[in-house]
Amino acid sequence: MWYACLAEPPPGAVATGLPMAKGRSLSEFQEAFPDEACCAAFLVRRRWPNGFVCPACAGRRAAALKSRAYTYECANCGRQTSITAGTAMHRTRLPLTTWFWAAHLMATHSNGMSARQLEDQLGVTYKTAWLLTQKLRRSMVDPDREPLEGVVEVDQAEIPFREGDAFFEPGSAGKIFIIGAVEVIDRDTNQPKPRRKHAKYLDTRSGRIRLAMIADNSAASIEAFVRANVKRGATLLTDGHASYPGLIDYRHDPRIVGTMAGHVVLPWIHRAFSLMKRWGLGTYHGLRRTHVDTYLNEFVFRYNRRFHRHVSFEALLGLAAHHAPASYWDIVKRDNPRKGVQTIRRTPRRRKTATGMRQDGAPPALGTDQNQPIKPVHPLHIDEPGTTG
Q1: Total count of domains within the chain
Q2: Are 272 and 182 in contact (CB under 8 A)?
Q3: Is residue 188 a part of any domain in this protein?
Q4: pLDDT tens digits for 186-223?
Q5: Contact 302, 112 (CB under 8 A)
Q6: Alpha-carbon distance 74 to 85, whole Å?
Q7: Residue 38 CB partners (closer than 8 Å, separation 6+)
Q8: What is the pTM assigned to this prediction?
Q9: Which CATH number goes with the domain that contains 259?
Q10: Where in the sequence is the domain holding 243, given as residue range(s)?
Q11: Could you tell me if residue 224 is inside a domain?
Q12: Structural domain includes residue 180
């Protein structure tokens, strides 16, 4: 076992591709990334596996600056680029070791890690832990991932969601429509194996999955999800919803559920739904509608890597090193008040005056005169001594 912060890889490691660190235990993780230098070396190898590339002019010659930590200056255009610039860690004030610890805990923990738990583990504030988890969740989606193919089960479900900070009560909670798709893999060949229509798919297992929130069960919402996540020509195993026949470039194999339980006809997608619901209630005590897509992406990331969870940490940081930066204001979908955008305040601002606290736009207090008369100024007589003060 070797790690990216070491000087040289073992013989034969380069020939098989980019080596990946394996943080299988806490002791191994601490040995691999004990300080900022090892974390920075790992990020450099992830971001520029074939050497430095300037984001401005694509130049490959650069010099490491001694005045700024982990920053390179392009020899062609002179642009200075940090190893975290343009990534999910863009303009971060946290140490790299904190980012690595957070990624390790979120990626390798079987049930995930909430912001409240991460706050206790890292010793940071809740707002910092929440922003850290949100940025890492947005890095769990690979922009170059391949669509699902072969035999794919597709179905819709409803999950409850929380409103505000109130205690979660399943009886009074609202509902979110979600849609999911899962690959059906044959156990003998470990490959998808389409069969004749209405044939039973026995001795199979689930492969990769995709989940997303939809506005409703309309044909437009379902077709948009299928075309974005399933490869053309794949076999769709569905419950016979009226929206699927419109997907003429797919092989449709409907399974009429009727009075039968849905998990009997479509077992793998309903197993994914069941695990996702239990995960949302157990780890986060119910999901919220605002950021539900990011939580679904986290579940998909962990589910698709369930057989090799020890490399999820490296995959997460590898994706984060190529992910577009998102600030706090981008995540909460509000305008940044520091960029000149007028902020709509819920209550008027109160200012301290000579007569006490006063709201903006409020009339002055009674008994006070804001227009004080100016005392007359006596002219100066330069010719007379002593009059110039």
Answers
A1: 1
A2: yes
A3: yes
A4: 988 888 888 888 788 888 899 999 999 998 888 899 99
A5: yes
A6: 14
A7: 3, 4, 5, 32
A8: 0.75
A9: 3.30.420
A10: 151-165+172-290
A11: yes
A12: yes
